[in-house]
Amino acid sequence: MAASQTHQLSSLDNVEMSIHVIDTEKNQIQEPAINEFGYSQRGQWLRAAVLGANDGLVSVASLMMGVGSVKEDIKAMIIAGFAGLIAGACSMAIGEFVSVYTQRDVEIAQMKREKQKRSERENKEVTERKQLPNPGHAAAASAMAFSVGAVIPLLAAGFIRDHKVRMALVVAVASMALVVFGVVGALLGGTPVMKSSARVLVGGWMAMACTFGLTKLIGSEGMQI
Known about the structure:
Blueprint: H1 2-70, H2 74-115, H3 120-129, H4 135-157, H5 163-189, H6 193-220
Helix pairs in contact: 1-2, 1-4, 1-5, 1-6, 2-4, 4-5, 5-6
């Protein structure tokens, strides 16, 4: 009888140890998913901020380079850059608002479809976990990021009287800011730093070069500004 009880206790211990091992392995498997979830949660705001800042910087710097290719007056460059800042910030805010609002509508519709297939308790748990995107916050973040990026070339050119020095400074400052934006975006998003920075920098150079060259070409054909 004692031997039978000892055998039963040993079996129970083995079962408890097996359950503990399974729970431990399950927790170890789930840990990477938590980290990945953190990146996905910040992905929307990161995308809006990085896209807005890069757009503001590249758009306004390219616009100023285009105007500077046919007009040496500093006032013309500053006015063009400021107009680009206002127009771009408004455009980014409206575009982001519409985009995120559409995403929100899609998610709400999906939640309603899934609600019909679940019990009341499951619906409550899913609703508590689900965080719908906020269109207003996304629009404000995008417009603010665009404005921050656009101010950089304006400040770089605003105090330089010599035309050639002003143009070179706009390119230099814009290039440094593009590298910084690329590094920050890569670090926050968990992507390769060098690849991200190079992609952002080369893209900015191409935009500024195309705007400068095409505007110079049009101006050289006799159009008076």
